[in-house]
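User: Could you go from structure to sequence for me? I need the amino acid at each position, not a summary. C-alpha cells:
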C-alpha cells in the first residue's frame, strides 16, 4: 500500500538546490557519502577506495594533478530498488590552462573495484557509465566541444573507444563547463520510469540545467555505484565532495515485478549502434555476392534464350528439308 505522504508533492532540498518533484525522494544513507568521511578508523563506512585515491577531511581526491594516475571510490552496497537519483558534488581543477585531462566517470555497474582504461575503470562493463570527459582525444571531429558529458549503457559487449571520446557508443550527451575552482559544481543522475535524466549545476547558479533526457533505458537492480577518474599525459585533480543518493518512488505497476528487475540485461533503445568495421565488410561482401548471383542468373537466361532460338531455327530448317524430300 502506498502511504499517503508518499503521494504528496515532496519538496527536496539538496544543498543549495531546491526542487519540487512529483516523486518521493528517500535519502539512502548507505549509498551516500558526506563529511566527515571516515568513521572511527581509517575506513569510510560503505565505501571502498582503490588506486591513487586519497581521503582528506574536505574531499576525496580520486586522482591528483599528476600524470598517469587512476583511482576510484566504490559503494560496497548494491542498489536494490529500481529507480534512484544521485547528486554528486565534485571539483575538477589543475595547473593546466588549455591542456588537461582525462576526466571522471560515474558508474552503476555489476563489477565494482575493477581498474581499467575507461576513466580508471574496466571496459566491457555491465550497466551504466556517465563520462565527464575533459579532454578531446579526437579534437575537431565532433559536433561538440569539451568538457563533454556523455552516457553509455553496456551489457559487456561493447568497448569504450577512448580515441574517439566514446562517440560511437554514446547514448546522449551535452557540453558542460564543469572544470572550475570558482564555485561548487554538481551533476544529478536520475533513473526513473526507464528514463535517464542528467542535469548539471556548474555555473554557480544553484539551479539544475538539463544535460539530456533519454527514454527507453533499461537497467537492472543489484548493481553498484562508483566514481573513478584517470590522468594520462595530461592531468587534473578529480575530487569528490559529496554523494547523495535517493530512492525514488517505485511505480505501482512494478510492485509485483521487483524480482524481474534484477534480470534485466542493460540496454538503451536510443543508443548509437557500435560501428563495427568487420560487420560493414561482411555486409559489403554480402551485397557483392548477391550482385554476382543476379549477374550470373541474367547471363544464364540470355544463354538459354539464345540456345532456344538457335534450337528452334535448326528444328524449323530440318522440318523444311523433310517436307521438300516428302514432296
Ligand atoms: Ca576524452
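Assistant: Here is the amino acid at each position, in order:
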Amino acid at each position: 500500500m502506498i502511504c499517503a505522504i508518499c503521494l504528496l508533492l515532496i519538496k527536496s532540498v539538496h544543498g543549495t538546490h531546491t526542487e519540487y518533484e512529483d516523486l518521493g525522494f528517500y535519502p539512502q544513507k548507505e549509498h551516500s557519502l558526506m563529511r566527515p568521511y571516515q568513521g572511527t578508523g581509517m575506513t569510510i563506512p560503505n565505501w571502498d577506495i582503490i588506486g591513487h585515491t586519497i581521503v582528506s577531511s574536505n574531499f576525496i581526491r580520486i586522482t591528483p594533478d599528476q600524470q598517469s594516475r587512476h583511482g576510484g571510490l566504490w559503494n560496497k552496497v548494491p542498489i536494490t530498488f529500481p529507480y534512484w537519483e544521485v547528486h554528486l558534488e565534485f571539483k575538477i581543477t589543475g595547473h593546466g590552462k588549455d591542456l588537461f585531462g582525462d576526466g571522471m566517470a560515474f558508474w552503476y555497474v555489476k563489477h565494482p573495484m575493477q581498474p581499467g582504461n575507461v576513466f580508471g575503470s574496466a571496459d566491457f562493463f555491465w550497466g551504466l557509465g556517465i563520462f565527464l570527459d575533459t579532454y578531446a582525444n579526437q579534437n575537431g571531429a565532433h559536433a561538440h566541444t569539451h568538457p563533454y558529458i556523455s552516457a553509455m549503457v553496456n551489457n559487456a559487449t561493447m568497448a569504450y573507444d577512448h580515441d574517439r571520446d566514446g562517440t560511437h557508443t554514446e547514448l546522449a550527451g551535452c557540453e558542460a563547463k564543469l572544470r572550475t575552482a570558482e564555485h561548487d559544481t554538481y551533476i544529478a543522475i536520475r533513473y526513473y520510469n526507464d528514463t535517464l535524466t542528467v542535469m548539471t549545476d556548474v555555473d554557480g547558479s544553484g539551479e539544475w540545467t538539463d544535460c539530456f533526457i533519454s527514454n527507453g533505458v533499461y537497467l537492472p537492480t543489484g548493481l553498484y555505484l562508483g566514481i573513478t577518474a584517470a590522468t594520462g599525459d595530461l592531468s587534473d585533480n578529480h575530487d569528490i565532495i559529496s554523494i547523495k543518493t535517493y530512492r525514488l518512488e517505485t511505480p505501482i505497476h512494478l510492485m509485483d515485478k521487483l524480482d524481474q528487475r534484477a534480470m534485466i540485461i542493460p540496454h538503451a533503445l536510443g543508443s548509437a549502434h557500435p560501428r563495427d568495421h568487420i560487420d560493414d565488410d561482411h555486409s559489403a561482401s554480402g551485397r557483392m555476392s548477391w550482385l554476382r548471383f543476379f549477374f550470373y542468373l541474367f547471363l544464364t537466361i540470355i544463354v538459354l534464350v539464345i540456345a532456344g532460338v538457335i534450337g528452334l531455327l535448326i528444328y524449323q530448317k530440318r522440318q523444311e528439308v523433310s517436307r521438300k524430300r516428302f514432296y
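One structural detail worth keeping in mind: The domain at 4-275 is CATH 2.60.120.200 (Jelly Rolls).
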